[in-house]
Amino acid sequence: MKKVGLITGASSGIGKQLAIIHASRGNNVVLTARRLPELETLAEEIRTKYQVEAYVMAIDLTERDAPTKIFAFTEKEGLFVEYLFNNAGFGGHGKFVDRQLEADKSMIDLNVGALTDLMHLYLPNMVKNKFGKVLNVASTAGFIAGPLQATYFATKAFVVSLTKATSFELRHTGVTVTALCPGPVKTEFDVVAGMGGSDMFANGADAYSTALFGYKAMMKGKRTVISDLSLRFLLRIIAPFLPERIMLGIIEKKQAI
Ligand SMILES: NC(=O)c1ccc[n+]([C@@H]2O[C@H](COP(=O)([O-])OP(=O)(O)OC[C@H]3O[C@@H](n4cnc5c(N)ncnc54)[C@H](OP(=O)(O)O)[C@@H]3O)[C@@H](O)[C@H]2O)c1
Questions:
Q1: Could you tell me the domains of the chain?
Q2: Does any ligand 1 atom lie closer than 6 A to the CB of residue 200?
Q3: Is residue 152 annotated as a catalytic residue, yes or no?
């Protein structure tokens, strides 16, 4: 079987950079997202530049059977997914009571459902093979509750928790699971989340350095890493000593647009 890295959300932002970084190190890649033209352009660039195989599968991961369709595709092509980049995700701004149920359900289906399904589908073969690496793109939002992005922060708390537990369960198997927790990053994320033009994202990190930080952590088999230095300090050193009410107020102010 041909070894590959499977990247979800490879059509833009952090996922696109993860695909480029992984391919640039001589690895075959499977690129998935909804937008086919963006995936095909990236696949062509990767094939030409890095002389590796680049497979494309355009699919909406909020659809219930999308992860099993991806799994069936890699099986049919004879591909062994030894690196899984669970990156696709989106946020949504606004008070919980004002948000549409369907929008939040889709967010949970993608950020939580598809990510969990893909781990279920690919981890057993990694364990059997005694090698595999999963990078779950979580967020600093995964460590705190987030007024004005309540559901998004909750989805990322799930990702952080799932990553920590599974990485520990798998510690003697040769398979590692890592959560990359970025702060604000300049991608399409803010516009999709309804926060376009906010200073927080305009001053955010760039997608390449964020992806590289996560990639290196995954290769070292780290459990959770925070790519933003000042947020790392705030969350690991300051936040544990702040009363919850104060912390929630800080987050709400940060999310206000
Ligand atoms: N940017 C930030 O500030 C930030 C901070 C912390 C964490 N993150 C996390 O980083 C990850 C990547 O986000 P990004 O910042 O790179 O944002 P982005 O530029 O908007 O990229 C999101 C990717 O997910 C894909 N995607 C969205 N909905 C999808 C669906 N229904 N089915 C399949 N693919 C879908 C998008 O492709 P299509 O539109 O083509 O489907 C795109 O490739 C997300 O999990 C996000 O929560 C981002």
A1: 2-255 (3.40.50.720)
A2: no
A3: yes
